[in-house]
TrEMBL record:
Every LysM domain range: 48-92, 98-142
Gene Ontology molecular function: metalloendopeptidase activity
Keywords: Signal
PANTHER family documented for this protein: MUREIN HYDROLASE ACTIVATOR ENVC, PEPTIDASE-RELATED
Signal sequence extent: 1-25
Domain of life of the native organism: Bacteria
InterPro entries to which the protein is assigned, alphabetical: Cell_wall_metabolism_enzyme, Dup_hybrid_motif, LysM, LysM_dom_sf, M23ase_b-sheet_dom
UniProt source species: Syntrophothermus lipocalidus (strain DSM 12680 / TGB-C1)
Pfam families named among the record's database cross-references: LysM (PF01476), Peptidase_M23 (PF01551)
Coiled-coil residue windows: none
SMART domains the record matches: LysM
Protein name listed in UniProt: Peptidase M23
Length: 282
């Protein structure tokens, strides 16, 4: 009834219709990058996909694009405790338009005044038909026209934004809320005396005793970024000293308020505490 070629096509069509997931996995190449479907927000309609390369961080990608890292997190449903994995696909803006993450109490009219933009243009660009239902956390596109340049994943602009690990050990406490209160960094356990290294080049702006932190080193880096290393047993640098990336600056200890030998590591940008795991290279 059917030629051989026709029978083969019919069987293949039946297989795909009955098991679309398996068929897709069978015919999809490892480096296949899907298209971004048109959605109801600027974060969907004005984006392209970026495959995360080794060493990239959310902060580095956001800085390269000139946008707020919180906007990038909102576009991808990520938070301060999220980690980027090599090969992961994330959404990034396609056009060099301003992006705004809606805060509680903000309206489209208030946002338009902030950016000196036309309300109707914002509504049209984001396909908003019920502005009174605008929700906090929504990412809005403030219309623009210039596309972002496509940057190769191995660009130095990405890699230099990442911090190196100050210590190899076990993370015993992550950034964020916990029973005793908000934890402003990550704790990395290691044996007493283990070398602690500078996460990046910079200048030592504090080296000494701090309440709670004990023996502490703070280093200032380019981009208004600082890193803090707490609970050390011995400090090996002085205030005002220039240090290189990977240089030994202290040794692991249990000074200050501590239950055992470990490093308490913090990252701040413009004096605002950030999740260190967003900056540390993988």
């Amino acid at each position: 009834m059917f030629p051989k070629a026709g029978k083969l096509a019919l069987v293949l069509a039946l297989v795909i219709s009955l098991a679309p997931g398996r068929a897709q996995a069978w015919i999809t190449r490892d480096d296949f990058v899907p298209c971004v479907r048109s959605g109801t927000s600027a974060a969907d309609s004005e984006t392209r996909l970026h495959r995360v390369a080794r060493g990239e961080t959310l902060w580095g990608i956001a800085r390269n694009l000139g946008i707020d890292v919180e906007v990038l997190m909102a576009m991808n449903g990520l938070d301060d405790n999220s980690l980027l994995l090599e090969g992961q696909l994330i959404k990034i803006p396609y056009r060099q338009s301003r992006l705004h993450r809606v805060k509680t109490g903000e309206t489209v009219w208030k946002i338009a005044r902030m950016y000196q933009a036309d309300v109707n243009e914002i509504l049209n660009a984001n396909r908003i038909t019920r502005p009174e239902r605008l929700r906090a956390g929504t990412v809005l596109l403030i219309p623009g026209s210039k596309p972002y340049p496509v940057v190769a994943p191995t660009s130095r602009g990405f890699l230099t934004s990442a911090l190196s690990w100050p210590l190899v050990g076990t993370i015993t406490s992550k950034f964020g809320g916990r029973k005793s209160g908000f934890h402003h960094g990550v704790d990395i356990a290691a044996k007493k005396g283990t070398p602690i290294r500078a996460a990046d080049a910079g200048e030592v702006i504090f080296a000494g005793w701090k309440p709670v932190y004990g023996q502490t080193v703070i280093i200032k880096h380019p981009g208004n970024k600082t890193t803090l290393y707490g609970h050390a047993s011995k400090i090996k640098v002085k205030k005002g000293q220039k240090v290189r990336r990977g240089q030994v600056i202290a040794e692991v200890g249990s000074s200050g308020v501590s239950t055992g030998p470990h490093l308490h590591f913090e990252v701040r940008v413009d004096d605002e505490v950030k999740n260190p795991l967003l900056f540390l290279s993988r």
